[in-house]
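Hey all, sorry for the wall of text incoming. These are the two entities for the joint prediction.
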Amino acid sequence: MNLEKKIKSGISEALKSQFGLEDQTETIQLQPTKKEFEGALTFVSFPYTSKTKKAPEQIGETIGKFLKDNLEEVADFNVVKGFLNLVISDKTWLSIFSNSVLSEDFAVLPSNGKRVMVEYSSPNTNKPLHLGHLRNNFLGYSVSEILKASGYDVVKANLINDRGIHICKSMLAYQLWGNGETPQSSGLKGDHLAGKYYVLFDKEYKKEIDVLKGQGVEEEEAKKQAPLMKQAQELLLKWEEGDKEIVALWEKMNGWVYDGFNATYKTIGVTFDKFYYESNTYLLGKNIVEEGLAKKVFFKKPDGSVWVDLTSDGLDEKLLLRGDGTSVYITQDLGTADLKFQEYKAEKSVYVVGNEQDYHFNVLKLILKKLGKSYADGVYHLSYGMVDLPSGKMKSREGTVVDADDLVKEMLETAEARTKELGKIEGFSEEDLQALYKKLGLGALKYFLLKVDPKKRMLFNPEESIEFQGHTGPFIQYTYARISAILRKAKQLEVDYNKETFSSLGNLHPSEREGIVLMTKFPEKIQEAARNYAPSEIAQYIFDLAKAYNHFYGEVAIFSEENKAALSFRIAFSFAVAKIINRGMQLLGIEVPEKM
RNA sequence: GGUCCCGUAGCUCAGCUGGAUAGAGCAACUGCCUUCUAAGCAGUAGGUCUUUGGUUCGAAUCCAAACGGGAUCACCA
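and here's what came out:
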């Protein structure tokens, strides 16, 4: 039985024997004791004043005394107003440390036999990835790792949006102005090359709109009338008809883009188990439309278009099939949801998609429910906020984006500069150095994007956002490297830790106690982060742990310690912290260096 | 206009299902490297938690309204 449960049942017993209350185990709440007070766990007695008809202080005193007398874990207590602070004996902490924290399978949670699919990244193939995509990729990867750690069987999926009007825009611009340029001839990464023509299209398209507006055409109309737009739409039609030349161009340009994406994915260290291509799935969903019509969940309008009425759920009427029988975004997504379930039978399906699509996913889930799909309840939209720049929103078309590849490159350069500045790279090979810069640069970037609650939008200031000091990835990596140095030295000196000697230890240093308390919380943190789909909770936790260790490091000497048991314990303590930091950072997709 | 999200220190952010004197980091200021890595540690200063009501023994947290910011309400994806 774990400590909290033991104390709770102790309190429940106290309430029963001292005040005659029935079993309260379920309702008793314990919270961590605030730093200013002595103790580790706090019981709040206010809620029991009416039941016991006693003053909060008196309840605290009575229960505190009972626990101290009856539980060996409780060494002492103090009462401040309605707060009963419990001091747990160091012996208890040491026993938890050696039996639980140090055990091989600590924080290794058993499989829960459930499968979850996490779809993330899902890029358009007409332009390179930018900072917003990085947040998406890092979130998706990290959430997958966290779900795995909490016992799920995870399938990471990437639905590539490889067809549609946006790709045709790039293709058209390339046809018109590309002069047969290739990634090889231009030296541009494939996705950047495609992006270049997307931007070019938009520039020329805007000119055409302006000309039309000058001729007195309304803006909305001008957008439709512009010749470039009409040509792009023609391309799309030809593509759908299977026009050989167009399909070949599409395949060629998409090929370039995939090469580019794969290079970026490899650099930033994200992976997928399954790729879906929209060109294969965009016709799906029509059978769902049939099904919905048969079930009378959907209805047909006179022009033949198919709709669903969601007004009773506070939403609008939603189109599912155009009058000409072609499908729209939501139709495809319905089809894909069904396909995913048929293929993987996952109980949960997580979509890592920006919060601008909140409405879309509300509709999607609602329709699946109305159709009586068993998997509807498992659909979860992990809706994350945008990354804003000081100048406002990022827009690919207008080129006001922070490009992912550029940013990563910059991060590695900064990592290199910082490292050289500090001059601690003696004994590193050139290869080691490059690997280190990558760990640090990406660590800083990933941590920066993951430490914030996914749901919230965040600000990225290129000038000053990503630091290497303070609440950052490199701070945590540094702590790990520091501990690694200690463990290396311990090995060299052949100081091993021996659990048996811990019991002969006297008192723990407060910083050691704090560290142990934090470490015991790791498994529940993983569960909580999985439940909330929130890597930020892991990020925050690992930061707190690293901070606690550095505090310990400053206060307590290790190798000059003469008491063998204390020395042994501190090595074990350091080892355990390093292990958790490493594991926690893995859950964020961040690598950790032995030296830096 | 309807719906949804957000508003905490100069800046960027924590604050779990309501609990004690609201926490970190950056920036500012003080100290600490001949002793295990100073990308660190210790400390000072900085807050009417947007505002106003309400519920409660207790509200940054829950409810309502106002103000401010954002997203969305496409036969685009």
